[in-house]
C-alpha cells in the first residue's frame, strides 16, 4: 500500500525547493521544463510561467545539446545520478556572475548534478537538474593555479 501524502509535507518540500540557493529544474523525457525554482528565475530572468512546458534547448541555445543528451541517456539507462564539474565544463546555462564583491568573472561557474526521477512504473520519467554556483571556488582555484604557474594572475 502506498504511503499517504501529507499536504503539509508537500508544502514544506516546495518551499525548500523554491528557497534553496541552487538551481532546481525538473525536465520530462522530452526536455520540457516542469519545475523551475526561484534561483533559476533570478539568474535567468525567466519566470516559471515563461518556461513551463518549453524545451530547455530552445530556452538556452548555449547548452551543448549533444553532450547533455548523452549525459541524460546514461542517467536514464543506469538509473543513477551523473555529475559535471566546472573544471570539465564551466557552465550548463550561461548566467551572468552576480558576485557583488569580486565580480571578476564574466559568468557563473557551475557544478551540475543530474538526478533520475522514477515514475510509479519504476522507470525514469523525469530528470532533476541541480545547478550549483561555484564561481568563488573557481576564481580561487584559477588564482592559485596562476600563482603556481608564475604569472601572478589577478591580485
TrEMBL record:
<dbReference type="InterPro" id="IPR035965">
    <property type="entry name" value="PAS-like_dom_sf"/>
</dbReference>
<feature type="domain" description="PAS">
    <location>
        <begin position="9"/>
        <end position="79"/>
    </location>
</feature>
<dbReference type="GO" id="GO:0016301">
    <property type="term" value="F:kinase activity"/>
</dbReference>
<protein>
    <submittedName>
        <fullName>Diguanylate cyclase</fullName>
    </submittedName>
</protein>
<dbReference type="InterPro" id="IPR013656">
    <property type="entry name" value="PAS_4"/>
</dbReference>
<dbReference type="InterPro" id="IPR000014">
    <property type="entry name" value="PAS"/>
</dbReference>
<dbReference type="Pfam" id="PF08448">
    <property type="entry name" value="PAS_4"/>
</dbReference>
<keyword id="KW-0418">Kinase</keyword>
<keyword id="KW-0808">Transferase</keyword>
Amino acid at each position: 500500500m502506498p504511503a499517504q501524502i501529507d499536504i503539509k509535507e508537500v508544502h514544506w518540500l516546495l518551499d525548500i525547493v523554491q528557497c534553496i540557493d541552487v538551481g532546481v529544474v525538473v525536465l520530462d523525457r522530452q526536455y520540457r521544463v516542469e519545475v523551475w525554482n526561484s534561483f533559476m528565475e533570478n539568474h535567468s530572468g525567466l519566470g516559471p510561467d515563461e518556461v513551463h512546458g518549453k524545451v530547455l534547448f530552445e530556452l538556452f541555445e548555449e547548452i551543448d545539446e549533444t553532450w547533455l543528451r548523452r549525459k541524460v541517456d546514461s542517467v536514464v539507462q543506469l538509473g543513477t545520478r551523473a555529475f559535471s564539474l566546472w573544471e570539465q565544463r564551466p557552465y550548463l546555462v550561461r548566467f551572468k556572475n552576480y558576485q557583488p564583491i569580486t565580480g571578476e568573472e564574466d559568468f557563473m561557474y557551475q557544478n551540475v548534478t543530474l538526478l533520475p526521477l522514477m515514475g510509479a512504473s519504476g522507470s525514469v520519467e523525469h530528470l532533476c537538474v541541480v545547478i550549483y554556483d561555484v564561481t568563488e571556488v573557481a576564481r580561487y582555484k584559477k588564482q592559485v593555479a596562476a600563482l603556481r604557474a608564475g604569472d601572478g594572475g589577478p591580485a
